[in-house]
Amino acid sequence: HKVTAPQHAKSAERAGVDAVIIVGYESAGHPGMNQVGTFVNLPAAAEEVSVPVIAAGGICDGKSMAAALSLGAEGVMIGTRAVATEECPVHQNFKDWIVNAGITDTIIIQRSLRNAARAIKNDVALTILGLEQTDIKMKDVMPYTDMIRSRDAMMSGDMNNAMLTAGQCVGRIHAVQPVGEVLREMTEEAETCIKALSSKII
């Protein structure tokens, strides 16, 4: 079960889940309202529950994977990094946008509606932010956040006329690769990082 805060992880454990995915504020989609990043959210959740904790949000390579494991995760989930793979069925425009984006090219929208979402900084996201400066209700932004509209844009490559979600790690993704290659590089780099840590501490 995906959760955005340690207290929600505890509730999920009480409900009988086998594991929880804890997301930090860096993540794409809905990262919760607390604005707490993975470095704080993850270890706090891992200390609160006995079920396995899987980390998500800002994880895109072996370095971030090693960090997550050292903070108490039993595994990691990648979202944005998985989009920029050869096998992902979205349009190449979306993959190219991820590769060329910087770490500040995503924004949080709908926070004023208590439905915070991280999306790419495009015309629709900026329109929603503008609407949030007025007295709006959820129904006023729904035409812009419609998931069918978003799906169609991802498949057609229209990067401006729909809400498209991506995590802050876009600024750390530099190539579209086969998914097997991504996973192999991540695990090898994580192992290298973990082995190198002892020499940095002593």
Structure description:
The chain is 46% helix and 10% strand. The strands form two sheets. Strands 1-2-3-4 form a four-stranded parallel sheet, with helices on one face. α3 (62-70) crosses α9. By secondary structure, it is of the alpha/beta class. It starts with a strand and ends with a helix. The mean pLDDT is 96. β3, α3 and β4 (75-76) form a beta-alpha-beta unit.
Short description:
This protein has 202 residues and is of the alpha/beta class. It has nine helices and six strands; from the N terminus they run βαβαβαβααββαααα. The protein has helices at 6-15, 38-48, 62-70, 80-83, 92-100, 123-131, 138-145, 147-156, 179-201; strands spanning 2-3, 20-23, 53-56, 75-76, 106-109, 117-120.
Give a quick account of the main beta sheet: strands, pairing sense, barrel closure: 4 strands, parallel
Q: Tell how many strands the DSSP assignment holds.
A: 6
Compute the CA-based radius of gyration.
Answer: 18 Å
Number of helices: 9
Q: Which class of secondary structure composition applies to the elements?
A: alpha/beta
Mean pLDDT level = 96
Order of helices and strands: EHEHEHEHHEEHHHH
Spatially, the strands of the biggest sheet line up as: 1-2-3-4
N-end to C-end Cα span? 38 Å
Entry keywords:
202 residues; alpha/beta; two-stranded antiparallel ribbon; 6 strands
